[in-house]
Amino acid sequence: MTSPSAPPQLDLRTQPGKPPLLFAQPTPDLPNPTSWAQHHRDTLRGLVAEHGGVLVRGLGLRDPGQVAAVFTELSGGLMADRESFATRRPFPGGVYSSTKWPANQPMCMHHELSYALEFPGLMLFACLQAAPTGGATGISDAQKILTALPTELVARFEREGWLLVRNYNDDIGSPLSEAFGTDDRPTIETYCRANGIDYQWQPDGGLRTRQRRHAIIAHPITGQDCWFNQIAFLNEWTLDPEVREFLVDVYGPESLPFNTYYGNGEPLTPDTVAMINQTYETHTIREPWRNGDLMIVDNIRAAHSREAYAGQREVLVGMASPLRMDGWPLEETR
C-alpha cells in the first residue's frame, strides 16, 4: 500500500516484513542521483525518523564516486571508520566497502560502532551489485527488541552495561593500522585513554583491549530508550561452531579476536546469546537488494544485519551524524 507519510509526488510503499520502499523517479529537473538526493533530502530524513529506515529504489547508483556524492548530500558529511572489528576497503569521499566477512555466514544484527564512545547516528548503504542468492541487509526496531527481551535480562544490562574484549593481531580481524588509523603505540594509547578503553600490550606485539559500554541508550530526538549494542553479534557463541573451535584451538579461549560479557565480566551463556539473536530474527524486516538501491538507517533506532549469500555482492557503506556516548570507562586505564 502507499504510505501517507511521503509527499504525493513520491511513491512510498509499505508492506509487512519489509522496510518502507520508496521508488525514485528522476525528472528533467532532477536528472541524476545526486540532484535527486539533494532535492529530497529532508523528505528522506523524515522517513528515516518515522520508520527507522527506508530503502530507495530506482536511483541507479553505479560507482563509488557517485555513491559518495549522494551520501554526502543526504548526510552533510561522512565519518571516518575507527575501531572496526574487521577489514573494510576505503574509497574516496568517506565511503567504505562492506565489512569483510565470510559470504556463507550471516552477520547478525548489530548497531554500528555501538562499542565506541563516538558512533554514527546514521548509516547509509548503496548496492552496486546484488548477490544472486541472499545477501539482504535486514533491519530491526531497537525499541521493539527492548520490549521483547526478558525484563530481568534488560534490567541487568541496564544496570551493568556490557563488556567488549578484543585481541588485535596480524592474523585475523582488523589490524591496528586500520582499527586506529595508525600502528604507532603512543598514538594508540592516547586514543584508548581518551575513549575509555583499557589496553594491554601482549608479548607478541598484539594488543588486548577492554571497554565497558551502555547496552541501552535514549534516542537523542525522541528520548525513547533503545537496545543499542553488539552483545550478541560479537560474542563467541554467535560464531559458526567450527570457526569458534578453530579460533579457540589456535588462540586460546582468552585470546579470541573479540568476545562480549556482562558488564561485571561474567560470561554469557550460549542460550542467552541464542535468545537475543532469535529475538532479533523475530523482529527483522528485509528486502532483497537490487542493483542501484540506496538504504538509509537510523543507527540507534534500528539494528542492521547481512544475510549469507552466494555469488558476487558489492554494497558500499557510509557513516554519518556522529554522536558521543557518555561512556562507562573502566576504572584502571593505562
TrEMBL record:
Residues 1-37 are annotated as: Disordered. Keywords: Antibiotic biosynthesis, Dioxygenase, Iron, Oxidoreductase. The keyword Oxidoreductase applies. The keyword Iron applies. InterPro entries: AlphaKG_dependent_hydroxylases (IPR050411), TauD-like_sf (IPR042098), TauD/TfdA-like (IPR003819). It comes from the Bacteria. One of its GO terms (molecular function) is dioxygenase activity. Signal peptide: none annotated. Residues 23-318 form the TauD/TfdA-like domain. Its cofactor is Fe(2+). This is TauD/TfdA family dioxygenase. It comes from Pseudonocardia eucalypti.
